[in-house]
Amino acid sequence: MQTMRAVKQAGGQGKNFANREVPMSDEDFGCIKRIAKQRTGIELGEHKKEMIYSRIVRRIRTLKFTTFQQYLTYLEENEGAELTNFINAITTNLTSFYREPHHFEHLENVVVPALLQSKKNRKIRIWSAGCSTGEEAYTIAMTLHKAIPKKGWDVKVLATDLDTNVIQHGRNGIYSQERVGNLDPDIVRRNFETVNVDDTRQFRVKSHIQDYVTFNRLNLLAEWPMKGKFDVIFCRNVVIYFSKDTQKQLFDRYANILEPNGHLFIGHSETLHGVTQRFISLGRTIYRKSH
Questions:
Q1: Under a CB-based contact definition with an 8 Å cutoff, are residues 179 and 203 in contact?
Q2: Which end of the chain has fewer CB within 10 Å, C or N?
Q3: What is the pLDDT of residues 89-148, one digit of tens each?
């Protein structure tokens, strides 16, 4: 564990971006912020500066540049080739299986039984928006597999993210011991199989769970190609990166694409209060569409 002195020293060094091996000026960071906002809707605050610096520096070194100016010029002149790498670099992907477990308990014990009674067409559609490396989408799939009859139901989970790297990770469905180590052994036994990757023991989501989930890249602020409506949307720890105006637009679009009485799950640090009146709070960041 770091000592308080070490933490303070790290914080002090973090503020001095102009004197680093690859200097980053305030103008450079301002340009990165503008591009991020224009292309993704993500608002980068000063508290993200250290993370952004370390990630963009990796791209600078990979491309054998020596300054942020060179990189930003390259990005401007080669947007088609580099924008995806830029977006992958600035997005944060913190997730885990069964994160905020009360959401999945509510899905299993309240939402699914109601859907089993009300869905005459026997189709259930759930969207994991901002799915990161796939843990959330697979947790949804594992919950559905446990709670829904195996025959006669058409059940699908759409998992989308802006970052192409995490989308591919999700499609592969392979996770380290660290990612599954805290799960109930019975959950691991039923839903994962061990595989050897580069002489390391890894855990692959079994095909009967992977079959529920489709992974696609999607910018939430761009046009949505989906035609049908969803019964449930998970959008957790995503809107914290957006402005209030952008949040209002996004939640309005979520309401439009949800079925009547559809459910929306958001992150523990997020709220719809003062943002939209189209959802009814059920408590613990669980909402139901009102109109």
A1: yes
A2: N
A3: 887 777 899 999 999 999 999 999 999 999 999 999 999 999 999 999 999 999 999 999
* Residue 30, C-beta contacts closer than 8 angstroms, at least 6 positions apart: none
**Nearest CA-CA partner of 192 in 179, 205, 207:** 205
pTM over 0.90: no
b/e per residue 119-148 (b: at least 16 CB within 10 A): eeeeebbbbbbbbbbbbbbbbbbbbbbebb
The 3 state secondary structure assigned to 224-276 is CCCCCCEEEEEECCCHHHCCHHHHHHHHHHHHHHEEEEEEEEECCCCCCCCCC
| Start-end of H helices in 78-173 | 79-90, 101-106, 112-118, 135-147, 164-172
Residue appearing with tokens 């939402």: 111
Active site residues per annotation: 55, 161
Residue with tokens 């994160």: 99
- Side-chain-side CA neighbours of 161 within 13 Å: the count stands at 30
